[in-house]
């Protein structure tokens, strides 16, 4: 039976999911608030709609006779899209609204970990009284991470002792309009991600990935949605041991065991400390950019995972190519604080060479009438092509036998793209930055 798969979301992560399904025995349809040109070229149909409107998503799913839906971003999960799809008889690979709280409500996340004795949980307190939170900062013996309880696109966290002083942290809390925040002990070490495919009480894990949240080279500047990431040809990263990876997987196992009927992706963001992996956060979907590291080396047909999950069959064992990946995002000038839109994207799938190109937030202008325009008043005056918006624009991914070779492939493609109106963290995946990670862990461990 040929499946009709509906992909919900239009970013780089979703382009990677679309690519992973492109050669499967499935007809792919997609819907998103923005028309991603890379997904549109793969999909049999694409509808532009508000993906946090469950009725709109269900209506489109029924229009295309979807047999499976894959939910990419976190916002539709929070809006209960998976619940409404299931009510309509359409299997959704993504957690229901209640289970998605493992990501969408950080206060719930920490209480869930504490109540279920999930390893790796930092010390924390939750607050809906902002002055009480500021008093806690004054009283706490050590530095704290300030986390809004709800979704902030990866940009709301402030870490005292790293990004802000204690006084600046209190000012941030007082000036914010957050209803609830979580204060938790600052974790010192190196961050990494392990993503798990979960269904029917089972899970399968992917190789570890390291994302780079800071906007500028050398890990400077404000947090972003993620400027790029890399993985190695092994499950672990160069600053980790096999045991570190296995300990992270054990935390995921305990979490899956404590969740009731969770299905979809469970993304564990960990800090490797001197006492092992600690949980920075959980997400209820693929990471962006981490999906672009994981899915290109997944040799198992992703559709087989989806159908096994839906049919209540054992999940297939996952096979990943023993190759490294380096992903680098091109973002508009001024991103994330004052981004400038309208730069022309000068690289495409052919000119990217050996690199994989994933579109994220872009607009396509076509004189033939195939136009995706949402933010620029002067778009009609532009030549045909693809243009940046105010969010992350596109990612280029190198896949090779080593991190160094993968990084070179990504850089070669970026040279074709040019940097007019764009900015890139070129240091991601480079040997000196990775060695700093290794040296940092060795120093913390006293080696």
In CATH, the architecture of the largest domain is 2-Layer Sandwich
Number of domains: 4
* Approximate strand percentage: 25-35%
Mean pLDDT: 95
The shape is globular
CATH topology of the largest domain, what is it called? D-amino Acid Aminotransferase, Chain A, domain 1
Unreliably modeled segments? 373-379
Question: Helix fraction?
Answer: 25-40%
Alpha carbon gap, first and last residue: 56 Å
The assigned structural class equals alpha+beta
Q: How many strand units?
A: 23
* Main sheet overview: 6 strands, antiparallel
CATH class assignment of the largest domain: Alpha Beta
CATH superfamily of the largest domain: ATP-grasp fold, B domain
C-alpha-based Rg, rounded: 21 Å
- What is the count of helical runs? 14
How would you describe this protein?
The chain has helices at residues 12-21, 37-42, 54-63, 74-78, 81-87, 101-104, 106-115, 130-139, 166-175, 242-258, 291-294, 302-310, 403-417, 431-444; strands spanning 3-8, 26-32, 45-48, 68-71, 91-93, 124-127, 144-148, 158-159, 181-185, 190-199, 202-205, 210-211, 214-216, 220-223, 228-231, 264-273, 276-283, 324-332, 356-359, 362-365, 385-388, 394-400, 422-424. Residues 373-379 have low confidence and may be disordered. It is 29% helix and 26% strand. The longest helix is centred in the middle third of the chain and has 17 residues, at 242-258.
């Amino acid at each position: 039976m040929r499946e009709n798969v509906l992909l919900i979301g239009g970013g780089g992560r979703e382009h990677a999911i679309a690519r992973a399904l492109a050669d499967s025995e499935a007809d792919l349809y997609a819907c998103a608030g923005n028309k991603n040109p890379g997904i549109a070229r793969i999909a049999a149909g694409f509808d532009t709609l508000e993906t946090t409107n469950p009725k709109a998503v269900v209506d489109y799913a029924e229009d295309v006779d979807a047999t499976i839906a894959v939910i990419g971003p976190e916002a539709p999960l929070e809006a209960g899209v998976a619940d409404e799809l299931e009510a309509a008889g359409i299997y959704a690979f993504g957690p229901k609204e209640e289970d998605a709280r493992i990501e969408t409500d950080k206060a719930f996340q920490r209480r869930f970990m504490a109540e279920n004795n999930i390893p790796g949980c930092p010390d924390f307190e939750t607050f809906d009284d902002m002055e009480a939170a500021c008093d806690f900062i004054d009283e706490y013996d050590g530095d704290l991470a300030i986390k809004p309880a709800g979704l902030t696109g990866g940009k709301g966290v402030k870490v005292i002792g790293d990004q802000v002083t204690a006084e600046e942290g209190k000012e941030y809390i007082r000036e914010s309009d957050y209803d609830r925040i979580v204060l938790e002990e600052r974790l010192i070490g190196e961050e990494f991600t392990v993503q798990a495919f979960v269904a029917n009480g089972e899970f399968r894990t992917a190789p570890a990935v390291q994302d780079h949240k800071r906007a500028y080279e050398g890990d400077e500047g404000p947090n972003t949605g993620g400027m790029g990431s890399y993985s190695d040809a092994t499950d672990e990263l160069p600053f980790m041991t096999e045991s570190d990876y296995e300990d992270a997987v054990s935390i995921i196992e305990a979490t899956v065991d404590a969740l009731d009927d969770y299905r979809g992706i469970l993304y564990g963001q960990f800090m490797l400390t001197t006492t092992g992996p600690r949980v920075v956060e959980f997400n209820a979907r693929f990471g962006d950019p981490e999906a672009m590291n994981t899915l290109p080396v997944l040799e198992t047909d992703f559709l087989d995972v989806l159908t096994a999950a839906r049919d209540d069959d054992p999940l297939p064992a996952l096979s990943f190519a023993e190759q490294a990946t380096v992903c680098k995002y091109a973002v508009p000038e001024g991103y994330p604080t004052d981004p400038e839109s309208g730069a022309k994207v000068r690289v495409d799938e052919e000119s990217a060479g050996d690199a994989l190109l994933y579109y994220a937030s872009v607009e396509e202008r076509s004189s033939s009438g195939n136009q995706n325009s949402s933010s620029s008043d002067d778009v009609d005056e532009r030549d045909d092509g693809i243009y940046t918006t105010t969010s992350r624009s596109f990612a280029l991914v190198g896949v090779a036998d080593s991190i160094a070779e993968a990084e070179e492939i990504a850089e070669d493609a970026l040279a074709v793209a040019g940097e007019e109106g764009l900015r890139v963290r070129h240091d991601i995946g480079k040997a000196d930055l990775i060695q700093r990670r290794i040296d940092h862990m060795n120093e913390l461990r006293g080696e």
